[in-house]
Amino acid sequence: MKSTHCIICLLLLIAACTKTEGQTPLKFRDTTIQGPQTFAIVVGVSEYKYVKPLTYADKDAILFSDYLKSPGGGSVNGDNIFMLLNEEASNSNFWTKGFQWLKAKKLQKGDKLFIYLAGHGDAIDQDQFFFLGYDCNPEGDKNNYLVAGTIQLFNLKKKISNETAKGVEVFFIMDACRSNELPGGVSGQSFLNTAISEKKVGEIIMLATGAGQESLEDKSIGNGHGLFTYYLVDGLSGVADTDGTPDFKVTFSEIQKYVDKNVPSVAKERFKRSQDPYFCCNENTEKVISNVDPTYLQKWLQTKRAQNGGGNSFNGILKSGSRNYADTLLVETYNQFNKAIKNNNIVGNKSAEEYYQQLNNKYPGNPYTLDAKSSLTVKYIDFAQAKVNRYLSCSDDLSAKQKQENTDAATRLEKAINYVREDDADFANSLRGRLFLLKASGNNASSAVSFQNAYTALSIDPNGAYIQNKLALLHLENNNKDSALFYADKAARTAPNWRCALTTLALVQNAANKTPENKNVKNNSPFRKVSFGGTIGGGLNQSNPTYSGNANSSYDDVRSNTAPAFDLGIIVQVNIGNNIFIRPSVTASFGSTDIDFIRKPLTGGQEIVETIGLKGTSANIELPLLVRLSSKKIAPYIMLGPSFSYLVSQDSRSVELLPIKKSLFSGNGGIGVDFGLGNSGLSLSPELKYTAGFSDTKDPAATTSYNLALSSLKKNTFSFNLYLRKR
Fold first, then answer.
1. How remote is the C-alpha of 692 from its chain's centroid?
2. Strands 121-125 and 128-132, how do they pair?
3. What is the pTM of this model?
4. pLDDT tens per residue across span 671-718
5. HSE of 114, CA atoms in CB hemisphere, 13 A
6. Whether the Cβ atoms of residue 45 and residue 54 lie closer than 8 Å to each other
7. Which residue in 368, 348, 408 sits closest to 384, CA to CA?
């Protein structure tokens, strides 16, 4: 009776472990298999949420996966293949679940890894290239790819390098250049192929097309496939085993020759197009890629003939994976987690978040827990990506409800980043721009918090049109029209095909009551906001004479007194960045400075003082740099820059007694405040300024007694100026 109870309990336990709401926990490497194993990540996307759909990319992925499972492909265990199709093939699923799966397999030296991608591919330039996930939303402009839900292939190539460094043989196969109608166009396709073709040691590359070409697909290819994938699988199944006497092995050279023979000829004859696959590299010529199973090959050929050139696939003999046993509470909690995921109950009471915490607290590192973690992370990222896509689609109306949704999305995304960073720092960092965009768009306590988050996003991605546009909207909301116009124009130039940027630019120009200076927003010349005005000011001149001690001089010492100065001129203020300006000015200065020459009588008594008043008029050119400390209507600033003065005239008396040089180089520093004058369109800036002379004004050629008494004469000025300009 006792043994019967044990059997019943065991059966109940097995039943509990296998009934997991249609989900299966993460499975580690099967250590019962000795020697190298084969693994594959297979992605196929035909159905896209936002971009033009494809027809056969998902079928191509299934075809390739079935080939790997077949005897001809090595009868790869289904547990060793991670596949994402259509709506499953999101950026979040690929990086989070896909590479957690790969990490669990603990690839070793001698293992093989196939990475197969079928779908849309595009690029911004030679350094930024992407595979488009299901929910990618570029909104017509390639510059949105970084935040639009793409799979960044640069990061994938880094992953491949990590595996090849361990001695893993990686086969990177991409049938992804399927349309020139994407925002990147022909140049994007060219950049994509060029970048992907850069081989890493231990990596074998097979690409559907050459640079700038389109990968073809059609119902007449097999039973409906992409041209490249069909002939690749066709050849690997054994048809390419044609060099010399068939040896039931397909080498790299054989599959390359077979694909290169068939794909270009079919493309030209049937579709009147060019398609030249790319294989890398020559050192792999004799490497065996596939061991041909004669029985499978015959079935393949029979099916081809029966389908009038169509191909089919056959599932190989699948090995049963090892069964994972777990206690009843673990499985029950895992089932509750998956039920919450299915019902989209992610946060709150009895949510996926709550059940994951229970799993992690009690069963850390367990396959069920790790799988729950990746599933929750995907939900966090997908929720945030949906809000980003809403913004990219110009559907973010900044209502209180949507602001709160953006805040909630940012909170979830931040949790996801913390989870992801443990395994994939590159992917985690790629999400930070989206995080701070959502924070800037959220329900913040003040505009200062929104600006802080927006500028953080800008520091992460300085060339991101999405954050430039957000800054324009924030500045417009806070009536900072100059800054709003600057960022709106910049976003429109960065992403000239993105309607949101163009709409924002129009809104800002209307608010500023301005018309576009250049309607061709595709012009790449940088935008500069220029305003004109005038200045008036006054202050005190102070000369710094240095006594020479010259024996030929009749004077024993020199000193100076302050004297008034007055200036008047015109200015031009140029915006060169956020809250950064240059303000060239041309002014006329009228001033004097008094210098006392002291003679001490030989007989003692009171010293004799002779005062020379240096009076003159000078023309000044200044080039100060201004940094505003705020973006508000009333904004303090600091100023620093050089100046050049030319003495136009010196009064007749002083020019005889103490002539001074015509030119003077100085440095300026000061503080001021910008005031917007209501709705007048004018800005008033009071400023305290200190000018320090760098050059000696004493004329070295003069030989008067006064001149001999001086070793140097430099001029300093304290002044107060008012600047009035049009905003």
1. 44
2. antiparallel
3. 0.61
4. 999 887 765 668 889 999 999 988 888 888 887 888 888 888 888 899
5. 27
6. yes
7. 408
**Cβ(251)–Cβ(217) under 8 Å?**
no
Q: Please, which residues have CB within 8 angstroms of residue 671's CB and are 6 or more apart in sequence? A: 636, 637, 638, 639, 687, 688
* Chain length of the chain: 727
| pLDDT at site 313 | 44
The Cβ of residue 344 has, within 10 Å, a number of other Cβ atoms equal to 10
* 356-363 long-range contacts, CB within 8 A, separation 24+: 358/333, 359/330, 359/333, 359/334, 362/329, 362/330, 362/333, 363/330
- Nearest residue to 173 (alpha-carbon basis) of 149, 195, 204: 204
Whether 689 contacts 670, CB under 8 Å = yes
Rounded-to-integer distance, Cα 221 and Cα 44, Å: 17
- Two tokens, residue 387: 């809000």
Classify domain 36-308 at the CATH class level.
alpha beta
Give per-residue pLDDT as tens, 360-405.
Answer: 998 888 888 888 998 999 999 999 999 998 988 888 777 889 999 9
The Cα 723–Cα 417 span in angstroms is 48
CATH of domain 340-511: 1.25.40.10
Cβ-Cβ contacts under 8 Å for 64 (sequence gap 6 or more): 42, 114, 116, 118, 173, 229, 232, 233
pLDDT for 609: 85
Distances (CA, A) of 126 to 101, 123, 154, 198, 683: 30, 7, 10, 11, 45
Under 8 Å between Cβ of 404 and 443: yes
Domains of the chain, by residue range, sit at 36-308, 340-511, 529-726
Q: State the CATH architecture for 529-726.
A: Beta Barrel (2.40)
**d(C-alpha 81, C-alpha 318), whole Å:** 12
Query: What span, in angstroms and rounded, lies between the C-alpha atoms of 539 and 591?
Result: 9
- Determine the 3-state secondary structure of 198 from DSSP: coil
Task: Please tell me the distance from the alpha carbon of residue 506 to that of residue 515, in angstroms, as a whole number.
Answer: 9
Beta-carbon contacts of 82 under 8 Å, excluding residues fewer than 6 positions away, are: 39, 40, 41, 42, 97, 98, 101, 102
What's the burial of 548, exposed, middle or buried (CB within 10 Å: 0-12/13-18/19+)?
Answer: middle
Q: From residue 431, how far is each of 147, 233, 660 by CA, in Å?
A: 8, 36, 64
CA distance 665 to 645: 7
Peptide bond before 17: cis, by omega within 30 degrees of 0?
no
Long-range Cβ contact pairs of 573-577 (< 8 A, separation 24 or more): 573/530, 573/531, 573/532, 573/533, 573/626, 573/725, 574/528, 574/529, 574/530, 575/482, 575/486, 575/528, 575/529, 575/530, 576/528
Task: Catalogue the E-assigned strands of 157-218.
Answer: 169-175, 203-207, 217-218
Which residues are 610's β-sheet partners?
A: 597
CB atoms closer than 10 angstroms to residue 429: 14
Return the number of other C-beta atoms located less than 10 Å from residue 328's C-beta: 11
The rounded distance, in Å, linking the Cα atoms of 655 and 138 is: 72
Find all residues with CB under 8 Å of 457, minimum gap 6, and list them. Answer: 433, 435, 436, 437, 440, 464, 467, 470
Is there a common fold for 36-308 and 529-726?
no
Q: How far apart are CA 462 and CA 28, in angstroms?
A: 41
DSSP assignment of 376-433 equals HHHHHHHHHHHHHHHHHTT-----HHHHHHHHHHHHHHHHHHHHHHTT-HHHHHHTHH
Calpha distance 113→230 (Å, rounded): 20
